[in-house]
Amino acid sequence: MKVLSLFDWISCGRIALERAWIQVDKYYASEIDKYAIQVSQKNYPDIIQLWDVKNWRDWNLWEIDMIIGGSPCQDLSIAGKRAGLDWARSWLFWDMVDIIAHYKPKYFLLENVASMSKENKQIITEAMWVEPILINSALVSAQNRKRLYRTNIPWITQPEDKGIVIKDILEDEVDEKYYISNKHIEAMINSRNSKRLNLPNMDKKTTSLIASYYKIPQDAPYIVATQIWQSKNFWNAWWNDKWYTIKSNTWHWLIEFTEPPRIRKLTPIECERLQTVPDNYTDSVSNTQRYKMLWNWWTVDVIAHIFNYLKF
Description:
- By secondary structure, this protein is α/β, with parallel strands linked by helices.
- The chain has eight helices and 13 strands.
- It has two domains: 172 residues, Vaccinia Virus protein VP39 (Rossmann fold); 95 residues, no CATH class.
- Helices cover 23% and strands 19% of the residues.
- It has a seven-stranded mixed sheet, with no helix packed on it.
């Protein structure tokens, strides 16, 4: 196939094509982030970089079989306060619509967040001429990550549940640098009077927090937490008759409920495993960039599942 990947980021689409045993003759990628391009080129030197999607009229490509992409969704999701499709970042969706209309590929795939308004969902559905398929990454990975997929690839069903839970992706040995020192924990933990959360299954309706969005066994001595924009980099946990309010600058933290509790970041490799990306796929850039890239892109095995329905 000749594939055009828009908003390509770290080329998760290319990994998914490999896992679906689909031969790629040419893979064109439109991406502007220099670190994401660096990761893509390290893993797939043959990728043809096209840079900014806004310059698509200058590309002059031929015989594109499939166009894939996940247009920026910051203005559509809860985290972006649902500013809508008319805002700068989400407006790029309309470029994808124009590109599909121009190249008329046999297949297309668009991924979006599920947490958008009904109005925006309807607008995207009408523009793409297909109803979305909701797939939760929990079926193929250790995280709950609901996304909408709009595609003309036919007969797609839900993936089989692989039964992967968070303990399956944790590294056996973790460098001490990922742990917060006891001194910093004492400075970060405060008593808090508000609605109690039940661990290890935290209340998902809590507005200040999205936690337990990972598949955790009932008897697990730990929990993973992640914050959304409205949380202002704070998340809360109730354990051992105390509230713990943690200030965080990254997405993933693991609380190990020992005495006293230990708190650490998930490692970049663990985050790669959450997204079903190969270990060390992103190791050519800094950890800061690795976390950013992994949390902002696709769960590879979901895309591979969709590609398994391609007909030639």
